[in-house]
């Protein structure tokens, strides 16, 4: 199995709820940042401005094992595969770098739309990246 893409995340006070634990919805933000870095910010901007293609979430699932706290330094580990010509599945987990198991496990399925919000196939650049990096 290919090595996942690793994106570091630092937990700030603003990320936590009244109990000092990361508010559950913030993990979606961390997943989003990791996907953006995996795909490449410049490529995402180019896809929208030149090709008129953007990504939207089709569905997601999350499972929580352990909450992160203010000051934690974490990793978002991501792999991706094309589940069809129109959908990419990002398997993402939050880990402490020295952790023995994931803290949060998620799967986010994305599809692409054009400027008129019509479904379009995944861009070749994304399919190529998935093949080269993860063997998909």
Q: According to CATH, what is the class? A: Alpha Beta
Following the backbone from N to C, one meets helices and strands in this order, namely EHHEEEEEH
Main sheet?
A: 6 strands, antiparallel
CATH T-level topology: Thiol Ester Dehydrase, Chain A
Task: Indicate the structural class.
Answer: alpha+beta
- Beginning-to-end CA distance, first to last residue: 11 Å
Summarize model confidence as the mean pLDDT.
95
From the coordinates shown, what is the CATH architecture? Roll
Radius of gyration, in angstroms, nearest whole number: 16 Å
Which word captures the global form?
globular
Description:
The chain has helices at 26-39, 41-51, 124-134; strands at 5-10, 54-64, 73-84, 87-95, 104-113, 119-120. The chain is α+β, with helices and mostly antiparallel strands. The chain has one domain (5-134): Thiol Ester Dehydrase, Chain A. Strands 1, 2, 3, 4, 5 and 6 form a 6-stranded antiparallel sheet that branches. The protein is globular and about 45 Å long. The N and C termini lie close together (11 Å). The relative contact order is 0.22. The mean pLDDT is 95.
């Amino acid at each position: 199995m290919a090595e996942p893409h690793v994106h570091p995340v630092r937990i700030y006070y603003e990320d936590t709820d009244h109990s000092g634990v990361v508010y559950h919805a913030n993990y979606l933000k961390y997943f989003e940042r990791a996907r953006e870095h995996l795909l490449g910010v410049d490529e995402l901007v180019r896809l929208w401005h030149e090709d008129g293609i953007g990504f939207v979430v089709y569905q997601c699932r999350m499972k929580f094992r352990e909450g992160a706290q203010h000051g934690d330094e974490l990793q978002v580990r991501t792999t991706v595969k094309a589940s069809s010509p129109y959908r990419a599945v990002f398997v993402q987990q939050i880990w402490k770098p020295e952790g023995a198991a994931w803290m949060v496990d998620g799967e986010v399925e994305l599809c692409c739309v054009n400027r008129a919000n019509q479904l379009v196939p995944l861009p070749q650049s994304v399919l190529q990246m998935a093949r080269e990096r993860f063997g998909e």
